Amino acid sequence: MVVLLVGSCALPFVMLAGDGFESVSDSGEGVAVIRIDAPIVGVGDGYGDYITPESFYDTLDQAQQDDSVKAIVLRVDSPGGTVAASQEIARYVKQCTKPVVVSSGDVNASGAYMISSQADEIWALPGTAVGSIGVIAQIPNASELLDKVGIEFTVITAGKNKDTGSPYRPLTNEERALIQGEVDEAYGQFIDIVAEGRKLKRSEVASLATGWTWSGERAKELGLVDKIGTYEDALDAAADAGGIKGDYEIITYEDEFGELFRTLMGLTRVLARLEGASPSIPDTSVRGRLPR
Question: 100-127, pLDDT tens digit by residue?
Answer without folding.
Answer: 999 999 999 999 999 999 999 999 999 9
